[in-house]
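Input set for joint prediction.
Command: fold jointly, output tokens.
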Amino acid sequence: MIPRMDTGLSMPLPVPDWAVLAPLLPMHLACDAGGRVTSVGPTAAKMLAAASDDLLGRDLFDLVIFKSPKSAQNFAQLHEIAGARVQLCFVNAPQITLRAVVSAWADGAVLSLSLGLNFVQGIAEWDLHLSDFPHTDQTVELLYLQEANNAVTRESRALTERLFTARALAEREALTDPLTGLANRRALERALPRLLSRADRPFALMHIDLDRFKAVNDGYGHAAGDMVLAQVGRILRSDIRAGDFAARMGGDEFVIMLSHMTDPATLGELAARLIKNLETPVAVEGGLARISASIGIAISTDFGQDARAMLRAADEALYNAKGAGRGGFAYARVD
Amino acid sequence: MTRYSLGLELPKTRRDEAMQGFVNRAFQQYVQDMHGTAAWEEIRVVAGAPLDGFEAMLPCDAQSTRHLLDAMACHLNLSAEALWEDLGLYLITHPRMEAIRRLLRFGGRDFVEFIWSLADLHDRGRLALASLDLPRVHIQSEMHGDMLRFDLAVTWVMEGGLCLILGALQAMADEYGTLAVIRVDKGRIVVECHDLGYGPGRSFALIGADRLREVAR
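tokens >
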């Protein structure tokens, strides 16, 4: 039977052989007035998991479930949704909603399908290839665009990560003394107010100044001086606990902060041991470098939140220790 | 030293400068992957490239590609033409560049369709990234007996477009398993397709393996 198109003219026009639709609309289904399938595009057949020829004559409404704008169960109802934005699915893949447009006339109807926005799931589900889409279908371009977008996003995220790492590294360098590997003055000035704001975590601060360091520099040269400073860094690091803080303030001045240590007697013992360790001679080119150290001790609970006052008090205590003869320690006076 | 300008200034950047970032980065990865990191380090120093290498997404100095090409030519003992051609080959075949191979495969089902899709190359690039300014390819074809012959003219803001496309075409012919003769003749690329189904070619699915795993989840 040759289907006839209702053109509104007195003479119906013959519709050419259905085969012409295959390359134009590989995702189409057509039926006659009885709802029997008269034509299936090759891609639609692939999606229905059947050969085109096996689908001819089947009941369209056994293959397709019309979801929106309303259900259609027979040929008459197809006319009601003709031209609308139709959404449907195949019975063998109900989870994937497809777009469709329906054109219906007295003797038949054609459904043109598209994967719509579910194209990724659809392509994966039915293993579709470039050859399953006509050149005019933009679905493949959408896929291309999505993949290109992912690649660009990946590249831009990698760039952000590289910049982030570089910044973190620069920040660490900005807070580290390169010679000793200890924190620097800037890092200390940042950390001290933060520590003081935690009343539940009292701590002690020791201001350390090396004695006879100038003699090492003058006697053995700056390289020897640097070796001694590096050795001081190692000693300070090994004599404090994890979570404590050691900084080189510049020159031969150092500061350590010891959390939860507020007992003057214990701090005194620690200071004496530190001084003894720092007095260990360091082998340098041309001999043994001998230094000592003086220490001023301040305890956080005496200073509230005043970082400046605490540093000043530790500095004064250090000055007093030096005045009392080198290689000793003194406690900060609290007014 | 190569200057980077901030991304914020991008709209003011000249188009060829925006492309330098992509090209320099591609050459850097080509040298690192094909000639080793030691070679890159020497070339980087001679070319005066940034310590951390180039960034594709940041435009850079107008002269940087020239300096980079000179340094590579000297160190690797290859002409600029050979380097561009190698780069085209590398971009298609190296596993690190899989994304590019896949994007190009969207162009067509076979090598002939792919060649025709090169007419869209420039526009496809712009679609992916507005600042990407890929070569424009003008295509003509004619039958010689039963052999299809293409004639490609390439225009680009940079000099090496013809050689870049030449290298990429050779790789794509392999990719599709096509027997083709590809050569340069009077400033144009001539492609003679002898057998589209000569070899097995490499596989291509519309949805890549890693994406497919995501969809399955």
